[in-house]
Amino acid sequence: SCYGCPTKVSCKGVGLHKFPKELGQGVKYLELSNNFIQNLSGSHTLGFGQLEYLDMCFNQLEAMSATALAQLPQLRSLLLGSNHLDHNYVANGRAFHLLRNIEVLDLSANNLESHMAGWYISNLTKLRMLDLSGNKMTRLLAGIFWSTRRLRELDLSNNYIMEIEEGAFEALEELEVVNLALNSLHCISGFSLTQLRVLNLSHNALELFVSEEGVEPYLLQVLDLSHNRLLYFPELPKAHYLTHLNLSNNLIASLLPGSHHLGEFVLRYKEMASFNGTSPAAAGLTHVADLDLSNNRLQLFPFTFFHSLGSLRSLSLAMNCLQEVARESLAGSTEPSDRSPAPPEHAALSVRSLDLRSNAIRVLPRWFFDSLPQLETINLGSNSLQPCGGSRVPAPGGNCTPFYNMPHLKHLNLHKNNITRLRPYAFNQTLLLSLDLSGNKDLFMPKEALGGLEFSLQKLSLRDNQMDNSKAELPCLGTLKVLDLSGNNLSLLPTGLFCSPLESLDVRHNNLLTLEKPALTSWSRSLKDVAVAGNPFSCCSLAWLDTLRAAGVGVRDLDKALCAYWDGSRNFSAKITSSPRWLCPRPRSTSPLALLVVIIGIFSLSSGACCLLKKGQKSLGCAGPCSKKVGVFPPHPKRDEPAEVKPADSITKV
Ligand SMILES: *[C@@H]1O[C@H](CO)[C@@H](O)[C@H](O)[C@H]1NC(C)=O
Ligand SMILES: *[C@@H]1O[C@H](CO)[C@@H](O)[C@H](O)[C@H]1NC(C)=O
Ligand SMILES: *[C@@H]1O[C@H](CO)[C@@H](O)[C@H](O)[C@H]1NC(C)=O
Ligand SMILES: *[C@@H]1O[C@H](CO)[C@@H](O)[C@H](O)[C@H]1NC(C)=O
Ligand SMILES: *[C@@H]1O[C@H](CO)[C@@H](O)[C@H](O)[C@H]1NC(C)=O
Ligand SMILES: *[C@@H]1O[C@H](CO)[C@@H](O)[C@H](O)[C@H]1NC(C)=O
Ligand SMILES: *[C@@H]1O[C@H](CO)[C@@H](O)[C@H](O)[C@H]1NC(C)=O
Ligand SMILES: *[C@@H]1O[C@H](CO)[C@@H](O)[C@H](O)[C@H]1NC(C)=O
Ligand SMILES: *[C@@H]1O[C@H](CO)[C@@H](O)[C@H](O)[C@H]1NC(C)=O
């Protein structure tokens, strides 16, 4: 049941209980993962002298003999994750010492304690990549990596490491990538692994991260400190190459120097004596492009702090407690500044993407945007901002935020800001491509509100605003492609829409009885998909559906859409997909008999039959349906005429 070519064989998940014997000589690459192999002894590996790669992850391995491994001198990669190598570890480890050429070793999820892991790797001098994740290690002993000096990548994530003995990493001069995520580290001090490029310390309990003073510059590029308990921005004065710094999900309340209060630490560290935090923490971080400070406790957007981050492109301060943006250097002060029109000199930040979602911002002053001249994307969802009107008349109260005149801004999200009214030309001269105004209950949007976006806006969301027809007016948006109107109370589509080349339309959960033909006709060339469920469509005017189908538009949720019909005494609701259209009153029908309707239905089953029936009357348009299709829509049954023949059981009910 194994397959592959002579040198590369896979027996993955085929139920093996033993190492497969019958494979030919010369196998170099062997995959045995997801089986039930328990032991590996000398007789098994005889004849596998060419083997370079062996994957035995997800087996029941607990014993590997020295003879077995000695017979694999070419082995470079050995993957043994998710086995039971905590059993017999002394004997197994002794066997491992013979794996002279091993470069890649996976010992993840084997229940290994620190000393077991240390024993396994204690003679693997050529090791480049080591995976010890998902074990039970609690500390890294000083000598653990003494013989594995060429280690480049080390995964220690998901253990219980609380302690790293001094010098544990000292021998590892080529180490570049270390993953210590999901451990129990409380403090990193004297961090001096200058050769590291990627360090992941996320999901620990770090309160303090201090680099060593006076060392040479660090090569570190990626530092993930997310999900810890940091109270302050880490001190990284010499991390000049750092591009990606993740501090999300910590307890950072201030980025200002001098705001440290040692009393806030849960534990005491001797490093605190020298730790006085007056150095500007961001000083050396000239290459940081991506800084994530989401889910912390910041109350101020500290402009000055970000000034030294000259390469910053993407900044997230989502889910903090921001109320204000701070205008000037606020050293020593945590008071929110009063609003002043004067922007600081040389204040421009290079940020292109800014995430300020889920804060408590009420207003952003003009200078804020002026200081972000390259801003392309801003997420301001879940705040309390009110956009100003675009005209020169100042808004009453003056506590609105100007979104006009920002030529570089392309994506604006104002989801859930409790915006009740948009003023005319709110986005004038801001060539937005996408605008999210969803979740603003009872939003009133007059026709002029989106004035100025006629030739730029491509994507608009007005979802869950409970707007009725009079509140949702749109100008002619000549480039709009994606529109979400779901969760409103519209019984008509906004008329301005008809000049948009819509491709995707969501009108779920509104009050629509039908979709008007003019609209559908105007979108016939562009529309690709619609979502319609949750409207009180009438079963007797489903011509819109035929129109959509004929135009090849996908109706995403047709199986969930219902329609209502009146049977003379009460309203019924039916699935549109099984809609009983033959019950509907037929305005021009000469016979009240439903049976006749059904018969006509049968004859109109195919266009061929239709032609035969009407052969003598070419002038009445028969040629149309049967000849080559012309025009935008292929022909389809006339509105309100039975289009489908129901199965016999439906007919007998009639
Ligand atoms: C595997 O090896 C262990 C220890 O050498 C031994 O006790 C056990 O019986 C062996 N199991 C099998 C299935 O060979
Ligand atoms: C360690 O590996 C070397 C070869 O790399 C070998 O000569 C030596 O015997 C091994 N030591 C032990 C204790 O197995
Ligand atoms: C760090 O590890 C965590 C947990 O495994 C993971 O979610 C995160 O993506 C890693 N960070 C980086 C930068 O790879
Ligand atoms: C930072 O870490 C969080 C949590 O691990 C993750 O969701 C987020 O995507 C990371 N941010 C960046 C910019 O990688
Ligand atoms: C604070 O730290 C700086 C450099 O880290 C040092 O020069 C200064 O003496 C320290 N101040 C105090 C009061 O410890
Ligand atoms: C839109 O902005 C332009 C340029 O600033 C201005 O001339 C025009 O009056 C504005 N339109 C409205 C309606 O405010
Ligand atoms: C929304 O705004 C109105 C006034 O416009 C205010 O009365 C109300 O409390 C606000 N709601 C929330 C959730 O902020
Ligand atoms: C929706 O609009 C109708 C009138 O068109 C009104 O009677 C109804 O109360 C509205 N529903 C909601 C939830 O606002
Ligand atoms: C039946 O539904 C139609 C439209 O859906 C409505 O106008 C009519 O009032 C309803 N009749 C009853 C009795 O509910």
Automatic annotation (TrEMBL):
Gene3D superfamilies per record = Ribonuclease Inhibitor (3.80.10.10)
Pfam families cross-referenced by the UniProt entry? LRR_1, LRR_8
Q: Composition bias, kind Basic and acidic residues: at what positions?
A: 637-647
Residue stretches spanning the membrane: 593-613
The cross-references to InterPro entries, in alphabetical order and at most eight, read:
Leu-rich_rpt (IPR001611), Leu-rich_rpt_typical-subtyp (IPR003591), LRR_dom_sf (IPR032675), SLRP (IPR050333)
Stretches the record annotates as Disordered: 635-654
Q: Which UniProt keywords apply?
A: Leucine-rich repeat, Membrane, Repeat, Transmembrane, Transmembrane helix
Record PROSITE patterns = LRR
The record's listing under PANTHER family reads: AGAP008170-PA, NEPHROCAN
Query: Any idea what this protein is called?
Result: Leucine-rich repeat-containing protein 32
Q: Which organism is it from?
A: Otus sunia (Oriental scops-owl)
